[in-house]
Every structure is written in structure tokens, then in C-alpha cells.
């Protein structure tokens, strides 16, 4: 009805291939309760904190930095128990010799993770030009998402270091790159909508696990990657938030705090 208030829950969606297994079902089954906004993680982080969204997938470090105003929805994540493919440090020298990195503006978690993995000495500068141009000016460039996948396929640099793989080698734990979080001031008034969103996220995970081929086919029709490439990429990713993911996230946040990337540890209880 014209002039009626929009009562839908404002939901942020990471607009990269990595979240498609969840969104493929969520978009088709939500039943008009949600109004979606697509964007890169840092854009969604800012929109949620500025009250332009009610709930969103977001950078795990951004949730931790703002846990006083946000509540974790412990039903889904973007995680990996090893190589992730779409979080890459491209460099002209081995990663241990990198002294200057141009870092993507699209991800908060990956930048914090790179600092944890490389230590305090390398200089980080914002990536403001094409990755190839940035590599000509410094030792490395940090890319995420579809841009990182394209860089791997194109052989962007002599060295491509997968941050998920390096994290697993260092800690033995999965890496949680993104979580779902809701503004605390939204929770009391939108309990029904939030419960429905949590149910749909769980259902999306179940449906993807039951028939991953259907999701791969749908993604191949939407993204500029081949079916086999997408299938292999999806197998590297996990979308749950169980005990292993909680432990991995806690360890990452502890190390991020030690590296000066986080002021205090948030509560991760369900």
C-alpha cells in the first residue's frame, strides 16, 4: 500500500561467490520478510553500525570491535579449515620477505589476519589502484573474494599465499572470516523476523549439503567462473558455526588483540 511503513528486516548480503550457497536458498524462501542490501564486507560493516541495516553477514573482526552494539547470530559463517582460495597475498617475493603490502579496502578480517600472520614490521597501505600497478610499487597486494579468485587464475604474481592455509598451518584451527550479527537495539522488536532468518540460514546450509550440485549450477550461471572451478572452491568453505569455528574465532581474536588489531575480547557465547 502506498505510504505504508516498510516493516521488513534490513539484511546485508556479501555480494561475492563465497556466500552464494547460503543466499541461493535464502533469497528464494524468505517470503517478503526481508529487504536485502548487497555489498562487500566493509560496506556492510559500516551500514550495520550506522543503522542502515538491522542484521548482516560481516567481517568477524568488525563484529568483535563492535560487540557492545552487536549480537552474534551463531547459526552461520564463512569459514575454512585450510586453503580458502579467495583470500590471497600476491607478492613478488616470498611472504616472509614482504615489507610493503597494498591491502584491499573490501575486507577488515583479512587485513587483521595478515597482520597476525606477518607480524608488526610490514607496512600496510590502502589499495587504491589496479593490483598489477600496486605490485609494481611494492612487495605485495592483499585481495579477497572474486578479485582474489581472478588473480589466482591469471597468475597475478610469482607468489600467491593463501591466508586460510597459512592460518591452519600455524594454529591447526579453522579460520572464521565472516559471521552474522544483529544490532542489539533491533532484537526485542524484531524477534519473529530474526527467528525466521536463523531458521532459513540453517535450512540453506542443510539444502546445500543435500544437493551441492544444484547450487554449483546456479552459481555458474551467475558468476564468471567455470562449474568445476566453483565446485572445487565451494568444497573449501564451511558455513556452520559449531565448536570448531567458535574455537578458531576465539583464537584469531586473541591473536588480533595481541597484534593491536582489537581492543578487547567479545563474548562468543550463543
Task: Tell me about this structure.
It is a single chain. This protein is an alpha/beta fold and 270 residues long. It has two domains: 9-80 and 175-258, 3-Layer(aba) Sandwich (D-Maltodextrin-Binding Protein, domain 2), CATH 3.40.190.10; 87-171, Periplasmic binding protein-like II (D-Maltodextrin-Binding Protein, domain 2, 3-Layer(aba) Sandwich). The chain contains eleven helices and eleven strands. The protein has helices at 20-29, 41-49, 60-65, 109-118, 131-137, 145-154, 163-171, 191-210, 212-220, 227-235, 243-258, and strands at residues 9-14, 34-39, 55-59, 70-80, 87-91, 100-103, 123-126, 140-144, 159-162, 175-183, 237-238. Strands 2-1-3-10-4-11 form a six-stranded mixed β-sheet. Strands 7-6-8-5-9 form a five-stranded mixed β-sheet, with helices on both faces. Helix 1 (20-29) links the parallel strand 1 and strand 2 (34-39). The protein is globular and about 50 Å long. The model has no long low-confidence stretch (mean pLDDT 93).
The number of helices is 11
Large-scale geometry? globular
Q: What would the CATH topology of the largest domain be?
A: D-Maltodextrin-Binding Protein, domain 2
* Main sheet: strand order: 2-1-3-10-4-11
Q: CATH superfamily of the largest domain, called what?
A: Periplasmic binding protein-like II
CATH class of the largest domain: Alpha Beta
Helix content: 40-55%
Low-confidence stretches: none
Strand content: 15-25%
Give the terminus-to-terminus CA distance: 38 Å
- Largest sheet geometry: 6 strands, mixed
Strand-pairing-aware structural class: alpha/beta
Number of strands: 11
Number of domains: 2
CATH architecture annotation name of the largest domain: 3-Layer(aba) Sandwich
Q: Average the pLDDT over all residues and give the rounded result.
A: 93
Order of helices and strands: EHEHEHEEEHEHEHEHEHHHEH
- Rounded Rg: 18 Å
Amino acid at each position: 500500500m502506498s505510504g505504508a511503513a516498510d516493516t521488513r528486516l534490513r539484511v546485508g548480503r556479501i555480494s561475492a561467490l563465497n556466500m552464494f550457497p547460503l543466499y541461493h536458498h535464502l533469497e528464494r524462501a524468505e517470503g517478503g520478510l526481508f529487504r536485502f542490501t548487497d555489498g562487500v564486507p566493509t560496506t556492510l560493516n559500516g551500514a550495520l553500525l550506522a543503522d542502515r541495516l538491522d542484521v548482516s553477514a560481516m567481517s568477524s573482526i568488525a563484529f568483535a570491535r563492535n560487540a557492545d552494539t552487536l549480537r552474534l547470530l551463531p547459526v552461520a559463517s564463512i569459514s575454512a579449515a585450510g586453503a580458502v582460495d579467495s583470500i590471497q597475498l600476491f607478492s613478488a617475493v616470498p611472504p616472509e620477505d614482504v615489507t610493503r603490502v597494498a591491502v584491499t579496502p573490501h575486507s577488515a578480517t583479512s587485513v587483521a589476519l595478515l597482520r597476525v600472520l606477518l607480524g608488526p614490521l610490514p607496512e600496510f597501505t590502502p589499495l587504491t589502484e589496479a593490483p598489477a600497478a600496486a605490485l609494481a610499487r611494492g612487495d605485495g597486494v592483499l585481495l579477497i573474494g572474486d578479485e582474489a579468485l581472478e588473480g589466482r587464475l591469471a597468475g597475478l604474481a610469482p607468489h600467491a599465499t593463501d591466508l586460510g592455509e597459512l592460518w591452519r598451518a600455524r594454529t591447526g584451527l579453522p579460520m572464521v572470516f565472516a559471521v552474522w550479527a544483529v544490532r542489539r537495539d533491533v532484537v526485542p522488536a524484531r524477534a519473529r523476523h530474526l527467528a525466521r532468518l536463523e531458521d532459513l540460514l540453517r535450512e540453506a546450509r542443510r539444502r546445500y549439503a543435500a544437493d551441492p550440485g544444484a547450487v554449483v549450477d546456479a552459481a555458474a550461471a551467475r558468476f564468471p567462473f567455470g562449474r568445476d572451478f566453483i565446485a572445487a572452491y565451494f568444497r573449501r568453505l564451511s558455513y556452520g558455526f559449531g565448536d570448531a569455528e567458535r574455537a578458531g574465532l576465539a583464537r584469531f581474536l586473541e591473536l588480533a588483540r595481541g597484534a593491536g588489531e582489537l581492543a578487547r575480547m567479545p563474548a562468543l557465547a550463543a
